[in-house]
Amino acid sequence: MSGTHFSTGLNRNDYHPWMCRTCRLPRPDVTSIDFQIDSRSPELPYMDSDLFLEVAFARRDFLERMGQDVIREYLYLGELRNCDGDLLKDWVTFRGKNRIILRGRKRVHKGKTVTGYRCCDTCGAIMYHGEAPHYLCPAPPAGVRILEGGAGTLVVTRDLFEKLSPKKSRDLDFYQLPVLEEPLDDLPVELKCPKPA
Ligand SMILES: [Zn+2]
What we know:
By secondary structure, the protein is mainly beta. Helices cover 9% and strands 25% of the residues. Strands 2-3-6-4 form a 4-stranded antiparallel sheet. Residues 5-10 have low confidence and may be disordered. Zinc ion binds next to loops.
């Protein structure tokens, strides 16, 4: 489930303490992220994200439909401020304690495979690209009910999805993710990056 738009990014070139200096994405070891958006308020009604910096945020009351104990167990929350520096109390940034790559399909364009992944040498982050429709492979760890599948995307179990009961709109997209035993992108089941020194 994701709400996505590209913010214009006034703070795009700033260095943030949670950011990897090389890939400029949140480092894999980072927990909660405090973030400032470049507008008065988020543009989308439930969930939004800065796709460029891969920081996701959501309305607190929307996430809380899943129950506070569930949120505490699976998400790191952080503060969201607007362009004036005011704390947006109804919003939080979120980061999954468990993360998963939404796998895709292999795509060949003009004889070249354009799907694949690379590793950030500095922080060990995996940057993956595969064609939609997406699926999960390997299966999420047993018992885990919420995963973050990249910026602004929440992967939740069906019972939590029913608690969220989101309404599909132009701004909020969701779909069922199949779990496959074999990936369709010609890559290994487990994508691994070497641990940075
Ligand atoms: Zn990095």
